[in-house]
Specification:
It contains 12 helices and 11 strands. By secondary structure, it is of the alpha/beta class. The protein has 2 domains: 107 residues, no CATH class; 228 residues, Spore Coat Polysaccharide Biosynthesis Protein SpsA, Chain A (Alpha-Beta Complex), CATH 3.90.550.10. A 7-stranded mixed sheet has the order 3-2-1-4-7-5-8, sandwiched between helices. Strands 6-9 form a two-stranded parallel sheet. A hairpin with a 2-residue loop joins strand 10 and strand 11. Helix 6 packs across helix 11. The protein is globular and about 70 Å long.
Length: 367
């Protein structure tokens, strides 16, 4: 009886939480004013062993609809051992607003991995605003204009959605997983309690970066984008915007296999250990709810679990359906049932893995 009561209690908690997120998405999807002036912008891309992807990224950046004299695009070669450097050099040789930096190894514990490369890129930037994306991403031509338009006087950080290209069930599951997490990030930021920023589609005021002392004064994290976001929100007066905007979507590539996916999710999970208490509350409700359902499948009659399971599936579906419709990617909803099974499993397993082993492998480097 106690287990049954707990399941029904967390069914209510889960429903309330996701209704709040849905309300936040409704607000995040509201239109805003177009850009009225063109401030200087620096785009930072850290690239490590990206010879397969970097050219598509560079082409998309070269096609941005933004005044070239206001644009500063910095590619940081993060000690690549493949042909990334040569590909970038060849592409940018006749493009004055592009710059290639070769990242040097840092001796500082604050600057390891990607954070070190990004910090060196920022040091060489000139823009009033800093935009970040990854070397395996492509950006739309209006990306800069759409992101910069969100920088009202009190906004110091702007997040945007990233969508993975999906042509199979395995890729579709990853795509919905990303949208699911971006929905929580966008909704929470819009409602005034931002949880995180995601570095493949993120922008900040350079002034904010300087105020917090940059990555040199931020405690090292395997998720450097989250660490920077939290530092700015905690130490400055500025807030975060995270619109549900189809015009600022960045496209990226899914993991090729389960090994890559495991390392990616583990890195995110380890980084999440630094999350604020409210973040732990937000993510602990789904974890506990799924755990209770799993235990209930063993100890209780299935009839007791039908309503909680239906409610969970319905809430997850509505959150994804609304955002996918707004973003014009509703075709990916066909992967929903496969995603729901995957979500149920990994929401339970990932926290356990992270607690047991916090070692992270990223780009062939131990962090």
């Amino acid at each position: 009886m106690m287990l049954e009561n707990l399941i029904y209690t967390f069914t209510i908690f889960y429903t309330i939480e996701f209704l709040i997120f849905l309300f936040g998405l409704l607000k995040a999807a509201k239109p805003y004013n177009n850009i009225v002036h063109y401030p200087s912008v620096s785009i930072i891309v850290a690239a490590r062993n990206e010879e397969e992807n970097i050219l598509k990224c560079l082409i998309s950046l070269s096609q941005l609809d933004y005044p070239k004299e206001k644009l500063d695009i910095i590619i940081v070669n993060d000690q690549s051992t493949d042909h990334t450097k040569e590909i970038v050099e060849n592409f940018i040789k006749d493009k004055s607003h592009f710059k290639l930096l070769n990242s040097i190894k840092s001796t500082s514990q604050h600057l390891r991995g990607k954070a070190n490369a990004v910090a060196q890129g920022i040091e060489n930037s000139t823009g009033e605003f800093l935009l970040f994306t990854d070397a395996d991403c492509t950006v739309p031509k209006d990306w800069v204009k759409e992101i910069v338009a969100n920088f009202k006087q009190n906004i110091g950080i702007v997040g945007g959605y990233t969508i993975l290209k999906a042509n199979s069930i395995f890729e579709g599951i990853q795509t919905l997983d990303w949208i699911y997490l971006f929905n929580i990030a966008a909704s929470s930021a819009t409602l005034g309690f931002p949880l995180t920023g995601i570095g493949n589609n993120l922008a900040i005021r350079k002034k904010c970066y300087d105020e917090v002392g940059g990555y040199y004064n931020i405690r090292f994290s395997v998720t450097e984008d989250y660490a920077l976001t939290r530092a700015i929100l905690n130490k400055t007066k500025y807030k975060m915007a995270f619109p549900l905007n189809k015009k600022s979507i960045v496209n990226s590539l899914p993991c090729k296999n389960f090994t890559e996916l495991y390392h990616q999710k583990k890195r995110w999970g380890v980084g999440g250990l630094d999350m604020i208490p409210l973040g732990f509350l937000v993510f602990s409700i789904p974890f506990i709810f799924n755990m209770l359902i799993m235990i209930g499948l063993y100890y209780l009659n299935i009839c007791v679990l039908i309503v909680p399971i239906i409610i969970k599936i319905f809430m997850d579906f509505m959150l994804l359906f609304y955002s996918l419709k707004q973003l014009k990617y509703l075709r990916y909803i066909k992967y929903f049932l496969f995603f729901e099974i995957y979500l149920f499993i990994y929401v339970i397993i990932l926290p356990i893995i992270v607690v047991i082993n916090k070692k992270v492998l990223w780009k062939e480097r131990q962090l």
